[in-house]
Amino acid sequence: MGKAYPQFHSSYSHEELVEHFLLTPAELHFVLTFRGEPNRCGVALLLKVLPYLGYVPEKLGDIPQEVRAFITGQLGLLWDRSDDYPWYTSTRDNHVAQVRKFTDWRFLTAQDKVELEQWLREGAAYESQSAEMLLDAGCGRLQRLRVELPAEGELQRLVNSALTGFFQDIQRHITEAMPTEVRARIDNLLMVPDANFVSEFERMKADSGKPGVDQFQAEIDDEMVKSTVALKLKRGTASAEAILKRYNSYNRTHPTYKALTELGKAEKTIFLCHYLPSRETQREVQEGLNVVENWNATTDFICYGRQAELATNSREQQEVVTLSLQLLQNCLMLINTILLERTIEQEGLWERLSAEDFRALTPLFHGHINPYGQITLDLARPSFLKPA
Asked: What is the DSSP letter of 210?
């Protein structure tokens, strides 16, 4: 299978098994309506695998043994009977149809294909930096719509068709944005004079020049490159990062990409020339780095499970985790700020603190917080943030 096409991981942690393959009470009731332990095991697998992958695997052996054991272990059986399930018969097809009805999943229709290709072409292609990312975006959209994924080859053809249309749209936008004079000059470059065997454009490609800032400036001076850079494909003006990512994905040998790389090296060199002899610049950079490192340490402290890594591929759940983390960080900073202000006021330190002391104050500390164990809340007790 392709890299972006959904497939099982090589292994799963217990948290991942619970997140993706735990049967809800309604799902368990649905499974228990089927007769026979093998059928119940098979239906339970279909019920959890279809939403996870977006399709039903061709072979029972494609489902990892630990996933099978975790799902079937919730049925109250003495052992896993999924090996006895008739995976390659019409019985499974009938069960899949019932699972689709229960979960509101459906087949991919011709209209779905048209709409998916249009969505990839007009929306996702502008954000995806490679064909694999575009394929992943297509899979994610179908799964959110509860539409079964087609075969990998068919889905890849849809993505390739969308990419072709995407580049055609870019060419059309660029052409429409070009002045008439520039278009005429391009036509002259592509024409092959009677006295020559190749066009002027082919001769220009034979020697693109040495990569560097001068070469980049020469390309910018050309009206065609100006139009391409300023177009931003569909909206606004392209940033240097967006241009560099686009070239990085499709053609690293392009002179403009090499020129941008050389320009970045020059900017880094200029920065180092300012940084090394200047103590003030070094202190400013170090202070910024300390703030970032302190912030990252606080983030790791709050989101301490699984080394602060996101344990899910679901964008919705990732967004919930991220927003919850930001909320806790803001609450922590607010409380710490109030504690600092009250401590300084109670100790009478306002007049004694110097400018360096004020610069060192930060609400990003967590040594007074215990993230583990049981926490007892007494709502009748006055808050330490208010006068008793």
From this structure: -
